[in-house]
């Protein structure tokens, strides 16, 4: 039997951003109840692929390396809920153009290579709580500022206590021309 891996492309925060996001998640969770996501698993999905034969992962790496994206700033200032309020997330007021371009570029490149990806429009969000019992506040206070300079390929190991994630590749997003670093 071919080994299969559950994989997706995502923005993966560094430790400082993960800590800030987790702080926001805890404050929101105090209002919503439910299951708080682990600090080391917080992420923003760019393109979800699901189960793939392990042999296809190399093609995903090549595809990622061929993407031409740019670094951008993401301000996670809004909160909301989906699935009858059970999934609570944080996201930007509007996705920065470089983020939308990266997600759409990945989806297009994946489809061109025969991978099945979601047809629904990209909705930038970081899931913070599952099985929420009450609605979140509409805003993340203070907002979480995330300077995004890379994207990642992530493998998810689904267990009885939720998913654990393993970053299996990272690719830089260079600063736009004329932008000072930092
Ligand atoms: P979620 O956080 O909104 O649940 C790993 O499972 C990541 O991929 C999660 O961020 C999850 O989004 C997303 N994901 C899981 N299943 C998906 C699907 N069928 N389509 C799109 N995204 C999915």
TrEMBL record:
Keywords noted in UniProt: Hydrolase
EC number per UniProt: 3.1.4.58
Motif interval(s): HXTX 2: 125-128
SUPFAM superfamilies the record matches: LigT-like
Boundaries of every Phosphoesterase HXTX domain copy: 13-89
InterPro entries (UniProt xref): Cyclic_Pdiesterase (IPR009097), Phosphoesterase_HXTX (IPR014051), RNA_CPDase (IPR004175)
Residues at the active site: 43, 125
Motif range (HXTX 1): 43-46
Pfam families: LigT_PEase
UniProt keyword Hydrolase, yes or no: yes
Keyword rRNA processing: no
Catalytic activity: a 3'-end 2',3'-cyclophospho-ribonucleotide-RNA + H2O = a 3'-end 2'-phospho-ribonucleotide-RNA + H(+)
Family designation: Belongs to the 2H phosphoesterase superfamily. ThpR family.
Reported function: Hydrolyzes RNA 2',3'-cyclic phosphodiester to an RNA 2'-phosphomonoester.
UniProt name for this protein: RNA 2',3'-cyclic phosphodiesterase
Organism in which the protein naturally occurs: Thauera sinica
């Amino acid at each position: 039997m071919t080994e299969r891996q559950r994989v997706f492309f995502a923005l993966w925060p560094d430790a400082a951003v993960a800590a800030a996001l987790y702080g926001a998640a805890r404050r929101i969770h105090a209002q919503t109840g439910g299951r708080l996501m682990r600090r080391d698993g917080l992420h923003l999905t760019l393109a979800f692929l699901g189960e793939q034969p392990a042999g296809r992962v190399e093609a995903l790496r090549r595809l990622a390396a061929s993407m031409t994206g740019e670094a951008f700033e993401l301000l996670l200032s809004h909160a909301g809920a989906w699935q009858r309020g059970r999934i609570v997330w944080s996201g930007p007021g509007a996705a920065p153009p470089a983020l939308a371009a990266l997600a759409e570029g990945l989806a297009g490149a994946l489809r061109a290579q025969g991978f099945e990806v979601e047809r629904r429009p990209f909705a930038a969000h970081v899931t913070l709580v599952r099985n929420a019992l009450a609605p979140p506040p509409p805003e993340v206070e203070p907002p979480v500022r995330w300077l995004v300079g890379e994207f990642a390929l992530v493998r998810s190991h689904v267990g009885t206590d939720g998913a654990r994630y393993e970053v299996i590749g990272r690719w830089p997003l260079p600063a736009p021309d004329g932008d000072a670093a930092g």
